[in-house]
Design brief:
Shape: globular
CATH class of the largest domain: Mainly Alpha
CATH architecture of the largest domain: Orthogonal Bundle
Helix content: over 70%
Radius of gyration: 21 Å
Oligomer: single chain
Order of helices and strands: HHHHEHHHHEHHH
Number of helices: 11
Strand content: under 5%
Length: 306
């Protein structure tokens, strides 16, 4: 297989994990959580610290998840206990995590090339594809676990909090605890993605989380746009496929001669604007067609009522 294609797919799957985290907050909880811009590099920083200490690379991923849980919990507590708006809560945690990540790593950038990483284990003994299989296993594992969780009682309550908080309260459940748990779960997944990305690219950087929330949102939006007409597809699948399509679009855009890698964020913004515009246009056209049908029906004398 072409190395460029494999690399694009691998990064797409890693950002698929980010998309899963963003899917939980934006689609299920209806919570605009900007702290993921800080928890993504937090996972990378914690993993880098653990690897530098000689810890097992797989164990470092678990510690990254725990760090993400804590960060997400703080965002939730700021919102539900201190009554800070959801948007501002995420921004405050994101800002704080920048300094925390610097303190954890000790410097803005930590090289991991000489350290033992999860991708150094040749599990499948396939030259050049070890990292591919490991990443695929991770994304499948998280997707399956998240799908199973959303079918549980707590998963249904999590959905209910995003749709109708009063319903959860009427059931005698604490909506604040459920909301905090959802944020912890989301940021734990994003932190895992950050740790995996750091080990994949061989370094952890304090600025590697810039635009993570936009990337996750773009993935969810792209997936929803292109796959909305396919029935029976789970939201988690849509988010992952959206992340893959996003990375492919970005890679193709950067292959254009007059575009540079520094244009990445600009390209992302343009893509999101185009997709959102397409969605809004289609929605308006659909509504217009629906109104025309109703108008024609009324002009014909309306429906017969028995």
């Amino acid at each position: 297989m072409n190395f460029f294609l494999i690399s694009t797919i691998e990064q797409g799957f890693i950002f698929g994990l980010v998309a899963l985290g963003v899917f939980i907050t934006y689609r299920i909880l209806d919570f605009p959580d900007l702290s993921v811009d800080g928890t993504f590099p937090l996972g990378a920083a914690v993993s880098a610290l653990c690897l530098s200490s000689g810890m097992n690379p797989f164990l470092s991923l678990i510690f990254a998840i725990i760090a993400g849980f804590i960060a997400g919990g703080i965002t939730g507590l700021l919102h539900v206990k201190l009554k800070i708006t959801n948007l501002l809560s995420g921004i405050l945690v994101m800002i704080a995590l920048y300094s925390i990540n610097l303190r954890i790593m000790g410097k803005p950038n930590v090289q991991l090339f000489s350290l033992k990483k999860v991708f150094d284990y040749e599990f499948f003994k396939v030259e050049g594809l070890s990292s591919f299989f490991i990443i695929v296993l991770c994304i499948i594992l998280f997707k399956v676990l998240l799908d199973l969780f959303l079918k549980t009682k707590l998963g249904f309550l999590l959905r209910a909090v995003g749709d109708n908080e009063s319903l959860v309260t009427s059931l005698g459940m604490d909506k604040d605890i459920i909301k905090v748990f959802g944020l912890m779960l989301s940021n734990g997944i994003v932190a895992f993605a950050g740790a995996l990305m750091a080990q994949y690219q061989g370094f952890a950087d304090v600025t590697m989380g810039t635009g993570t929330v936009v990337t996750g949102l773009a993935s969810v939006i792209i997936g929803s746009t292109f796959l909305k007409n396919i029935g029976g597809m789970k939201g988690t699948t849509i988010a992952i496929v959206g992340a893959m399509l996003y990375k492919i679009i970005i890679s193709l855009a950067l292959s254009v001669k007059w575009l540079q890698p520094s244009d990445l964020k600009l390209i992302t913004a343009v893509i999101v604007v185009m997709i959102l515009s397409l969605n809004n246009t289609n929605f308006k056209l659909f509504n217009r067609k629906e109104k025309n049908v109703l108008k024609n029906r009324n002009s014909d004398g309306g429906d017969l009522v028995a």
